[in-house]
Automatic annotation (TrEMBL):
Transmembrane segments: none annotated. Pfam families: Semialdhyde_dh, Semialdhyde_dhC_1. It is found in: Cytoplasm. This is N-acetyl-gamma-glutamyl-phosphate reductase. The keyword Repeat does not apply. Keywords: Amino-acid biosynthesis, Arginine biosynthesis, Cytoplasm, NADP, Oxidoreductase. Its EC number is 1.2.1.38. It comes from Marinobacter persicus.
Amino acid sequence: MIKIGIVGGTGYTGVELLRILAVHPEVEVKCITSRSEAGMPVADMYPNLRGYFDLVFSVPDPTVLAGCDLVFFATPHGVAMRMIPELMAAGVRVVDLSADYRLKDLDTWAQWYGMPHETPDWVAKAVYGLPEVAREEIRQAQLVANPGCYPTAVQLGFLPLLEAGLVDSARLIADAKSGASGAGRQGKIGMLHGEVGESFKAYGASGHRHLPEIRQGLSAAAGREVGITFVPHLVPMVRGIEATLYAELNDVADFERLQSLFETRYQDEPFVDVMPFGSHPETRSVRGANQCRMALHRQEQSNMVIVSSVIDNLVKGAAGQAVQNMNIMFGLDEAMGLNAPALLP
Ligand SMILES: NC(=O)C1=CN([C@@H]2O[C@H](COP(=O)(O)OP(=O)(O)OC[C@H]3O[C@@H](n4cnc5c(N)ncnc54)[C@H](OP(=O)(O)O)[C@@H]3O)[C@@H](O)[C@H]2O)C=CC1
Ligand SMILES: CC(=O)N[C@@H](CCC(=O)OP(=O)(O)O)C(=O)O
């Protein structure tokens, strides 16, 4: 059994990790941390886990974490990087759900996250954990930077177009919408039901911290620096991201082969579903599931490709993808513990 530690167990992604690992046959969760709820049984806080775990939240203890085979960080930005040197030295493998190791450029990271990076060496060694792009590197990695939620939906939707060089990579547009769980569990006035319900707004239109992450991944796929406009929106639902992506085809004749291009690109991917041309993927079709569903569209008299890509931000956008990465790192079946279909309705 793989011994697991989770730092940040009371947050939305921490409890989602527990929900997935509860039925994973190859792991044993040894410790789960919370500074504010230390001493509380996990099942008292999360009754959906009654009968699955006999664990109590504890304060993060580097010695206990160093005894694990793999530690998930489900903490705010800036926490993992302070514990990484000790865990790496102890030979522990880590999947970090925060953004501490996602950006390779240290100045860009400092600019968006408002602090200098404390472990630049490990930034260079960390592997960006999008399995559909970096499966072989993930297998070998000691430290995996789990992608952000919006970056997962946006990158998967654009990748086939950029890898094949079929679109104008200087003028991509990603119009993305997220449910409120994307903002985490801490109380914030803007996330109250009374503020989010019956309303719909854009935010971060002049710049969001996921922009450099998306740009980094898509530029690697395109083989050149891409230009992208990314605008996130907050919608009155709990889980889910829908990203509507726009790109201009260089040659309109290529429309004929786009569907087969996407189907071929993702044919061996267990967690990407290319739906029939013209479909409209819904967030509820991936709720609770480690899936990205996408579909292509063309409007009359237009050379714009439209891709609609949906994920559950807490699953393929966070905890599910983190477990997928763990499975790859330990040579397990990549889909182990991740096969449950979405909850519908
Ligand atoms: N929500 C989402 O959809 C997604 C989130 N992410 C990222 O995953 C990470 C976790 O997100 P989420 O679960 O939403 O966050 P939450 O705010 O819901 O939870 C954060 C957790 O971290 C713990 N924590 C906070 N500060 C510290 C600290 N200094 N040291 C140790 N533990 C700490 C908290 O417990 P306590 O304070 O009691 O210790 C809590 O358990 C974030 O970096 C987020 O950006 C990534 C993709 C999607
Ligand atoms: C709705 C909402 O507020 N979403 C969050 C999503 C960010 C997130 O989850 O953060 P990382 O993926 O970078 O860790 C936001 O826009 O800040």
